[in-house]
Amino acid sequence: MVKNIAVIRGDGIGPEIVNEALKVLDKVAELYGHTFNYTDVDMGGCAIDKHGDPLPESELNKCVKSDSVLLGAVGGNKWNDVPGNMRPEKGLLRLRAGMGVYSNNRPAKIWPQLADASPLKKSIVDEGIDFIIVRELIGGIYFGEHKTVDDTAIDVLTYSEAEIERIGRIGFETARKRNKKLCSVEKSNVLDSSRLWRKVMHLLAKEYPDVELSDMLVDNCAMQIVKNPAQFDVIVTENMFGDILSDEASMITGSIGMIPSSSLGATTCGLYEPIHGSAPDIAGKDVANPVGTILSAAMMLRYSFDMNEEADAIENAVSGYLDAGYRTADIMSEGMTLVGCKQCGDLIINHIKKE
Ligand code: IPM
Ligand code: MG
């Protein structure tokens, strides 16, 4: 198959980790006889420097016209003082909205090889950690009005029934393909938008009688994720709660550097990115963990290109690399072999086999 992939290297460690993911994609293309064409897209701080805009229209168009988008990370201290609507992160938000990718899927799964890297007690880890956070990605407070008037700042949080329903359906469908347990997370003891959220989820539940729906307040959920993560199968939640809970969920699996994500909307053109940021403190030092980006590329193959075998080959290669005892600095532990970003990519490539 021929696929056109828009590639956003971005800022900080973005270019390094994306390089490794592209090496992996090239290896898959070679083994399975595909052609992946890459188009570079400027977004984030580098786009501000080059075009004076974190995501010029022309760059967004390249993404919308592609078969899917692979993204490293954007942002950095250098652009802290630019106005809010021109920040690097604004490019990312405009990209998500412009592509219409309302459903963000963030798995929290412990690799058995990394059980020691989890900050949780062994007895909790041994119960198992394998759940998915389905995060609404293009609504809520991220996309409400933002303004500062004199000494007062305002950020508006809005959700319509239709916006809740479409993400709710993804939550139910995702649970249906797994262990059929969906936990809807909100703050309905305080927020109107959360009360509407809960109401819509319960209406939808009637259409999915095979899925067990539960409700949980977000503060309690934050606690339950560290107390008893094994209880979760699929969590569905709004944009900002999902942002916060997915960082927490990633950490209990060992490292945020290992976690990929997919974002999809009405079409198969998706956005694939690791859930971590641009880590400017370690940029350019060849110490970043590229696995989150490499696994995001695997998700692209699976969910946008329907290349399940190829995606399996990448995931098995990551597992083989961990089995062989290699670790980047973020997950390093005693007795393991420390590797840099490039070496990590090379080792994973060596483990890719056509089954
Ligand atoms: C994420 C990031 C982004 C978000 C930032 C960089 C805007 O934290 O993808 O989780 O908040 O969505
Ligand atoms: Mg985040």
What does this protein structure show overall?
Helix content is 41%, strand content 19%. The chain has 355 residues and is of the alpha/beta class. The longest helix is centred in the first third of the chain and has 19 residues, at 14-32. The chain is globular, with a radius of gyration of 20 Å. Magnesium ion (MG) binds at residues 243, 247.
Helical stretch tally: 12
Quick one: overall form?
globular
The counted number of beta strands is: 14
Largest sheet: 10 strands, mixed
Which small-molecule species are bound to the chains here?
Answer: 3-isopropylmalic acid, magnesium ion
Biggest sheet: strand arrangement: 2-1-3-12-11-4-5-10-8-9
Strand and helix order: EHEHHEHEHEEEHEHEHEHEEHHEEH
Structural class, from helix and strand content?
alpha/beta
**Poorly predicted regions:** none
Mean pLDDT: 96
What is the gyration radius calculated from CA atoms? Answer: 20 Å
Query: Gap between N and C termini, in Å?
Result: 18 Å
Helix content: 40-55%
Strand residues, percent:
15-25%
